[in-house]
Structures are given as structure tokens and as C-alpha cells.
């Protein structure tokens, strides 16, 4: 890693991304095995597949990024509690760093934001709240564990925005789930 550019992606971070992508076939096999067990136990196949994909997708799509942001870097840990300061500083950075920081922060909780509302009947406000709480916990951990990273309120804002945008992208499947779940309740009346 270039010590003059502490934001530049390092070899361990690159390896984390490559290994995560390489493990996608294993994740697909895990989805198949869990869904098959649920179907064999008598659950409806469509619900088994949907719930399994959502659960595994939320975990497998979030965990590598969490490990990546908790990976130590050279340098001092710091805290930036003033909103938009880091984003303003980022505007002066080189294009690669801007993309790494913006995309990295937007994807941290994007998979969870996409899949959790499919699996559980929660709304956009709940997604935003749990994402903000989770992101705050991650930023606190970065500082407390001395990772050499900056715990920033801007990261929390971007992480939360990424989860909310991903949740909006999956909203189509929320409606299907809520309509299907409401149908038996209406029939019981």
C-alpha cells in the first residue's frame, strides 16, 4: 500500500474481494442445501427458496465487506464526527480513490438492505434505522480496535444510503411477500 495514500486499496482488501467472488459457487450450493432441507421438512418450495436466498444473500453479501472494513491499515485511528467533511476532502482525491471510497461505502450494507426486507416484513424506515445502527457499530469497532481507519459520520451516511437504495431495488419482492402473507389472514376472517 502506498503510505502517501492511506485510502488506496491494499493487497489484503483486493484478495478479500477476489476470494468472496470465488466462493460464490459454494454460496449457491449452501442455498440449494438449505432450501432442499426446508422443502423436505414440508415447507412450501417457493417460500423455502425465497427465504433461503434472502437469508444467505444478506449474510454472504455483507460479511466479506465487514471483514474488509475491519482489516487493519497502517496509520492512526481517528474519528470524524462533522458530517460531510470527509466527502468534501474526498473531492480533491484521485478518481480511483473517489470510486473506492464511494462504492465501498455504498455496498457495505447493500446486500443486507436488499435481502432483509424480502425475508422479514419490515419497511424502508426500519431498513434505514438498522443500517444506521449497524454502520455506527462498525465505525465504532474500527476506532476501538485500532484499525488505522477513520471512523466517520460520512461513512455511516453512505453505508445507510447504500442499504436504503438496495432496499428500494428489492421493493418489488416486498409487495409480493406482503400480498401473499396477507391473503391467508383475509381468508380467516
Structural summary, described in words:
The protein has 189 residues and is mainly alpha-helical. The chain has one domain (11-187). The model has no long low-confidence stretch (mean pLDDT 87). The relative contact order is 0.13. The radius of gyration is 19 Å and the shape is globular. Helices cover 73% and strands 3% of the residues. A two-stranded parallel sheet has the order 1-2.
Q: Level of helix content?
A: over 70%
Mean residue pLDDT: 87
Largest sheet: 2 strands, parallel
Q: Given the helix and strand composition, which structural class is it?
A: mainly alpha
Fill in the keyword field for this structure.
189 residues, two-stranded parallel sheet, globular
Topology diagram in text:
Elements: H1 11-22, H2 24-40, H3 45-69, E1 78-80, H4 85-90, H5 95-107, H6 110-119, H7 124-144, E2 150-152, H8 153-169, H9 171-187
Parallel strand pairs: 1-2
Short description:
With 189 residues, the protein is mostly helical. The protein is 73% helix and 3% strand. The chain is built from 9 helices and 2 strands.
